[in-house]
Amino acid sequence: MIFLDKLRAIQGTNNSLLCIGLDTDSGKLPKFLKKHANPQYEFNRQIIAATKDLVCAFKINSAFYEAEGERGWSAMRETLHCVPSSAISIADAKRGDIRNSSERYARIFLEEFKFDAITINPYMGKDSVAPFLRSPEQCAFILALTSNAGAKDFQRLKVGKKFLYQKVIETAMKWNGKKNIGFVAGATNPKDLKSIRNYAPTVPLLIPGVGAQGGSVKAAVQYGCDLKGEMAIINVSRSILYASGGEDFAESARREATKIRDEINFWREKFFKR
Amino acid sequence: MIFLDKLRAIQGTNNSLLCIGLDTDSGKLPKFLKKHANPQYEFNRQIIAATKDLVCAFKINSAFYEAEGERGWSAMRETLHCVPSSAISIADAKRGDIRNSSERYARIFLEEFKFDAITINPYMGKDSVAPFLRSPEQCAFILALTSNAGAKDFQRLKVGKKFLYQKVIETAMKWNGKKNIGFVAGATNPKDLKSIRNYAPTVPLLIPGVGAQGGSVKAAVQYGCDLKGEMAIINVSRSILYASGGEDFAESARREATKIRDEINFWREKFFKR
Predict the structure, then answer these.
(1) pLDDT, mean over chain B
(2) Does the CB of B162 have a partner CB in chain A at under 8 Å?
(3) Which residue in A146, A231, B36, B62 has a CA-CA distance of 20 to 30 Å to B250?
(4) What is the CATH number of the domain that holds A128?
């Protein structure tokens, strides 16, 4: 099934735009998990089992796994086996290199691990992105405007009358022949999010920045969704993963995820009469 | 020793600006290496042993190791153990993410693997780069103008009167309090290389694009070096690694590396009266 159809079906069936970001930090895991062979994996396994009916996607932030060396890569691989087919799996890897090298990143993340999607840094241009656009079943979320303070340094520079991030969207839309491009669009500035949705009315937007980073759920829904109130993937990581540091971490994560999913759906009803 | 001093000392002692790029492709290894437990590592071990007195640096392109999964990460780790202290080790990883995530990439590449340097994608701005700038002994080579066709898509957009890549350099130079920033500057367009050296007269430039990608050694030396004929790190990968596909691959690599080092030094003598 092509990526867009899969995403639409999942968002419908699960009635959720929530994505849980598995920024699983070994230093923050509940102590009792340390007895497990791979605590990072065990944590993810339980989080996924407790929340999989509440989300449309799980996003695996590769930085947190690479930081653990080979064991982290195993944890990433095993975590993927726990993500059900009723959720999109996103590699938050922010890769992008000359074609020859991007091919290798595509091979591991898309061909071997079989992630449904991956985040890509556009700075190196078309040929650096192309290897991630081969299959219409897999989506490349290209960084447009990120949720961090440094987004202003380059992404918001003016290129003629447009911001660089708008040029990135405009240009990347020309590469979207297989309809498998999406954009990363931070929730931290509602005006920008609105502008991004105007530039790309129908593509999926992966929206980080809600929660610990200060973006509002309301703005993420109001400006991040397409006209039907879909195609926004609203990522929340820390406030769900670390809702409790005790043995009840998975139940607590479920409670927090339910709250955010419901808040998202409250605003969807309000803005899109769903 | 701070990075700049280490680089200067090594370029002096080895009388070389050559960097060998270990873009070690499992699919291109000599067949007789297949009997080894980790052929990718064994190939690198022999290349390094055969060429270490001819170079100032070895650059490990992480894409080629990640593509092999856990075994590739082991190969990268073991390869680093073979790089002598008389050469700079560069992780060509092109990372960059929100601070929280960049911290993790810095942890594995700089703290655990202890690379002397890493390549960084600047698109996400200052806080995404900061975690790689902690130690004056380790250098972040920030992508300015890359050597691929896609460099024109965004890096050469006009921001006011400047190209985006020039703005990147200008801005990043403000973050250079520890004198541990360098730039990636493709050799494929001599005019641009000259402009980059004007913007950053004394910092190290990592220069890919010579050889298989079509850049000339002459231009890389003439425009990439500082006023003393130093501080350019001229990367060559494929033409050295795959000079021969047979049992003589390491000797052949040595022969090719010698040729390129000598060509570099020929132009250094010519342009810098060394």
Answers:
(1) 96
(2) no
(3) B62
(4) 3.20.20.70
- How much is the pLDDT for A251? 98
A18-47 burial, b at 16+ Cβ within 10 Å, e below that, comes to: bbbbbbbbbeebbeebeeeebbbbbbbbbb
- The alpha-carbon radius of gyration of chain B (Å, integer) is 18
C-alpha distance from residue A137 to each of A60, A88, A133, A218 (Å) = 18, 11, 9, 30
Query: What pLDDT was estimated at residue A33?
Result: 96
Buried/exposed code over B5-25 (b: 16+ C-beta within 10 A; e: otherwise): ebbbebbeebebbbbbbbbbb
B contact residues 82-111, partner A, Cβ 8 Å cutoff: 92, 94-105, 107-108
Q: Write the residue in B67, B168, B208 that is nearest to A107 by C-beta.
A: B67
DSSP letter assigned to residue A155: T
Of all residues in chain A, the one with the smallest CA distance to B110 is A67
Determine the structural domain holding residue B59 and report its residue range: 3-272
* CA-based nearest distance A98→chain B, Å: 6
Any B CB within 8 A of A171 CB: yes
pTM (predicted TM-score): 0.97
A150 vs B187 pLDDT, higher one: A150
| pLDDT classification of B188: cutoffs 50, 70, 90 | confident
Active site includes B228? no
Cα(A156)–Cα(A191) distance, integer angstroms: 13
Q: How far apart are CA B138 and CA B255, in angstroms?
A: 30
CB contact under 8 A, B61 and A146: no
> CB of B149 within 8 A of CB of A125?
yes
Write out residues 214-273 of B within 8 Å (CB-CB) of A: none
Domains of chain A: total: 1
